[in-house]
């Protein structure tokens, strides 16, 4: 009878350990996701702090702001059957390279009185493509929608520190 008790106790403990290990793995995955999001927020905050012009992105009381990832741009190209491809490729191509964190593309719909509208750029939209280079340099590309693509009208770079990845290994 002792053998049966020991066998049942062993099975119970094994099942308990397997269950707790799978729960730990799931919570670790969630922690990694949360850590990645926190890292991205830190990188984005650092980039924005380098360029006072980017304060407009956080001022949603005056402007409308949309944020796009590389995946968002690719999805838009696929959703239009490639018809928007020529226009969006000018943005999609900017995502090629090595970065600290993920580059972001913001489109700001500003009041026409707040921006320079001329014959070439008669739209009240401004694009900001921001990223952190591998060496820690923060980069901002100011863009305007042209006839067939987003045109880069200004590029600024500011030295900064390398944001450390403090997640996992």
Task: Write up this protein.
With 169 residues, this protein is α+β, with helices and mostly antiparallel strands. The protein has one domain (40-158). 42% of the residues lie in helices and 21% in strands. It is built from four helices and five strands. A five-stranded antiparallel β-sheet has the order 1-2-3-4-5. A hairpin with a 5-residue loop joins strand 3 (125-132) and strand 4.
Order of helices and strands: HHEHHEEEE
Helix-and-strand structural type: alpha+beta
How many individual β-strands?
5
- Choose one word for the global shape: globular
Ranges where pLDDT stays below 50 over 5 or more residues in a row are 22-27
Kindly report the average pLDDT value. 79
How big a fraction of the residues is strand?
Answer: 15-25%
Sequence of strands across the biggest β-sheet: 1-2-3-4-5
Number of domains as seen in the coordinates:
1
Which value, in Å, is the CA radius of gyration? 24 Å
Percentage of residues assigned to helices: 40-55%
Major β-sheet, in short? 5 strands, antiparallel
Tally of helical segments? 4
CA(first)-CA(last) distance: 47 Å
Oligomer: single chain
Features:
alpha+beta; 4 helices
Write a short abstract of this structure.
The chain has helices spanning 2-50, 55-58, 70-79, 85-92; strands at 64-68, 104-109, 125-132, 138-145, 150-158. The chain is an alpha+beta fold and 169 residues long.
Spell out the blueprint of helices and strands:
Elements: H1 2-50, H2 55-58, E1 64-68, H3 70-79, H4 85-92, E2 104-109, E3 125-132, E4 138-145, E5 150-158
Helix pairs in contact: 3-4
């Amino acid at each position: 009878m002792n053998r049966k008790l020991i066998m049942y106790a062993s099975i119970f403990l094994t099942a308990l350990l397997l269950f707790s290990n799978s729960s730990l793995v799931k919570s670790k995955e969630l922690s990694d996701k949360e850590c990645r999001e926190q890292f991205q927020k830190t990188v984005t905050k650092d980039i924005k702090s380098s360029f006072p012009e980017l304060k407009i992105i956080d001022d949603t009381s005056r402007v409308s702001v949309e944020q796009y990832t590389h995946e968002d741009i690719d999805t838009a190209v696929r959703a239009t059957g490639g018809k928007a491809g020529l226009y969006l490729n000018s943005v999609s191509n900017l995502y090629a390279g090595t970065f600290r964190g993920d580059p972001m593309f913001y489109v700001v719909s500003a009041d026409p009185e707040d921006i320079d509208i001329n014959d070439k750029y008669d739209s009240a939209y401004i694009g900001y493509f921001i990223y952190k280079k591998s060496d820690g340099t923060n980069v901002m590309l100011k863009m305007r929608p042209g006839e067939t693509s987003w045109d880069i009208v200004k590029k600024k770079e500011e030295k900064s520190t390398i944001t450390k990845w403090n997640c996992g290994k």
